[in-house]
Amino acid sequence: MPLIALTASGVTVLVDATAGRLPALVHWGRELPGLDAELAATLVTTAEPVAGSNDPDVRPRVALLPGHDTGWTGRPGLRGSYAGAGWSPAFLVTEVTVDGTPAAEFHAGGAGRIEVRAGDDAGRLELRLVVELLPTGLLRARAALRNLAEPEYALEDLVLAFPVPDEADELLDFTGRHNQERVPVRSPFPAGLHLRENRKGRTGADSAYLLHAGTPGFGFGTGRIWAVHTAWSGNHTHYAEQVHTGERLLGGGELLLPGEVRLARGDSYESPWLYGGYGAGLDELARRFHRHLRARRPPVPARRPVTLNVWEAVYFDHDTDRLIDLAERAAAVGVERYVLDDGWFGSRRDDTSGLGDWVVSPEVWPRGLHPLVDRVRALGMQFGLWFEPEMVNPDSDVARAHPEWIMAARAAWPIESRTQQVLNLGIPSAYEHVRSQIMAVLDEYDIGYLKWDHNRDLTEAGTQPDQGRPGVHAQTLAFYRLLDELRAAHPGLEIESCSSGGARVDLAVLERTDRVWVSDNIDPHDRQRMMRWTTQLVPPEYLGSHIASGRSHVTGRRHDLSFRAGTAIFGHLGIEWDLTEATAAETAELREWVTYFQQERDLLLGGDLVRMDGYPDRILVHGVVAPDRSRAWYAMAITDSITPDPAVRLRLRGLDRDGRYRLRPVIVGAPPSGLIPPRWWGADRAGRVLTGAALEDVGVACPRVHPDQVILYRADRV
Ligand code: GLA
Questions:
Q1: How many CB atoms lie within 10 A of CB 204?
Q2: In this structure, are residues 385 and 447 in contact, taking their beta carbons and an 8 Å threshold?
Q3: How confident is the model at residue 642 (pLDDT cuts 50, 70, 90)?
């Protein structure tokens, strides 16, 4: 049985699958040159710690699926039983393959896929583990468990974990809520368990998102960092664990509700992928995830269409003439995709009624959506439409006809949230109903884009026809299947994952959707932080990023167009503003921003992300650098007070250190408010030529501006 060393994009994993034991990672981190059979075997020996006093006589070796049978007293990877029996299976590996071929005693290679098959000592369970090192240097693993025995096996938990070294002493993960998504939280790596559980039946605005452990004080460009992400849009966990002997793990998996997965003979359960990333700095780590999503097929191009979403302009007040007027104004400023949001169907005149009836309302749309869709298409824009396929208002035709389709754990329905309940897609007839209603709309109209929303948590989400047994697992799989079927039937259809703003953002949903709505909060003051941290996993071209009204509908703050737009252009640009209220000057300035984005989007949305360390929280410096390092866009956002202090310098990373670049400020539309430029800008704003190293280590003086402003710079190799 083998030792396997895989190396890709500067990352090496050394997997020990010797002696019939479940695989364990001897090394996961920076590339190890010269890793031959001898060194690999040596590392297995030299990694072996001295037994602690009063510890098992044979030291537990922490496998990807940690097991009690090895003496491990931390969190087990597998929990379940045959009515109390067989709760601590001892697995013996029977087969190990690398890229489909039986593994040699020692295998060294590039990116690759290791498959391990194991059986338990009683011959009742079959376990398959897949471990992949991807070309991006990302690691991912998943497990499948099959019950081979007659009695039913009740699965409680199946999680995988990757070890991290003792130097990884600080954690970073995320929390959040509606309108405040992806708030970073740092903490010391605790003794015991740091467990992030999600029971919302969706990824969650408060999801751990990515759980990092790194060398203390790690930043965007500094430190050694390991991170995990559970790629699952239903209930799930992320955890960091340090046991009494000092071993540290990062893990995660699906969170199963009581009795949710019971395996009859021959049945199997497959866990979600657990992704692992290593990076020297958060930027390197983030770029691995970006490259991973950019390699997706079909890809999401950097050349994303500028979008107008009418939600904040009209809310539920659908009037054909007004919506056509908005379409005309949108086209005039260069918009390329027009999205009609909530309110077009059934009795949905506000959020208390009609949800779940995916039929165009004859009351507000007597001639169907045709007049609007036709006009939008004639104006050269794509048409997009909002759905919330998993949800119903109790006051809807579908809920009245099929109350048994509503997810509930007992006869009484769960507590309402936004006056809505969850439709059980795990029931085949309910699934078929939704599928056929959506298909009918897609067949009737020329629709290129769906905004797929999901606006409540799944609490007490049981299957009524099955005594209210938990249905979140089945619901999550049905959601994926529905996305897959719609995409297969309508190739080229783009789908946005929205969930009360940004509550469904994870790598599983992003295998099937093409953009995420970052937050319902479009206030650029808050969006600066959300973009900064949402890009830790998701590349900018996936981030729905809109220019909102001058006064934020969520926070009530007022912001200049230059700050709103200068924030939004670093994502998939859109507009969510009642353009009938924009002045002629604002409309002209908006047009300038749209044109500028259209010229620069290949780089803005296709480059390598960099975020600068060393500034107080209220100053956010970030940028995108062309992969060949020939040019870059940078932004410095000042979100508070009359900063920066005069002595603060703009320091920029990401360019070739010995390359020479002209750095110059770029002003689109009106200049930032309160601007007093530094002398180096020059009268014609031609800037200066500096080396990449000078820009990084010495920096340049900043202008003075009012708070809540952004200053853009471009760097071009000379
Ligand atoms: C959610 C979304 C919004 C909008 C509304 C419509 O809150 O996040 O963007 O689509 O639903 O009801």
A1: 28
A2: yes
A3: low
Mean pLDDT score, 492-508 = 98
pLDDT at 51: 81
Over residues 195-236, the pLDDT tens digits come to 999 999 999 999 999 999 999 999 999 999 999 999 999 999
Cis peptide before 135 (omega within 30 of 0): no
Query: Atom 2 in ligand 1: which residue has the minimum CA distance?
Result: 500
pLDDT, one tens digit per residue, over 586-596 is 999 999 999 99
Angle between the N-to-C axes of helices 524-534 and 561-568, in degrees from 0 to 180, rounded to the nearest 10: 10
What's the gap in Å between 667 CA and the centre of ligand 1? 33
CB of 501 closer than 6 A to ligand 1? yes
Whole-number pLDDT of residue 644: 77
Ligand 1 pocket mutation, candidates 390, 520, 543, criterion most atoms within 8 A of CB: 520
- 496 CB within 6 A, ligand 1: no
Q: Is 344 in the pocket of ligand 1 (CB under 6 A)?
A: no
* Residue from 312, 318, 453, 456 whose mutation best tests the ligand 1 pocket (most atoms within 8 A of CB): 453
User: Which residues are annotated as catalytic?
Assistant: 453, 520
Segment holding 309, helix H or strand E: strand 307-309
The CA distance from 47 to 15, in Å, is 13
Nearest to 311 by CA among 389, 420, 388: 388
Query: For residues 463 and 512, is the Cβ–Cβ distance under 8 A?
Result: no
User: Given pLDDT bands bounded at 50, 70 and 90, which one contains residue 50?
Assistant: confident
Tell me whether the omega of the peptide bond preceding residue 298 falls within 30 degrees of 0, making it cis.
Answer: yes
Tokens 């939280």, residue?
A: 185
Q: Is the CB of 341 under 6 A from ligand 1?
A: yes
* 108-153 pLDDT per residue, tens: 999 999 999 999 999 999 999 999 999 999 999 999 999 999 999 9
Reading the block at residue 359, the tokens are 């039929």
643 band by pLDDT with thresholds 50, 70 and 90 = low
- Supply the residue whose CA is at minimum distance from atom 1 of ligand 1: 500
CA of 185 to the centre of ligand 1 (A): 27
Query: Three-state SS for 326?
Result: helix
Average pLDDT over residues 469-487: 98
Question: Tens of pLDDT along 675-687?
Answer: 999 999 999 999 9
CA 387 to ligand 1 center in whole angstroms: 10
**The pair of three-digit structure tokens given for residue 361, joined into one six-digit string:** 């309302």
Q: How far is the CA of 453 from the centre of ligand 1 (A)?
A: 7
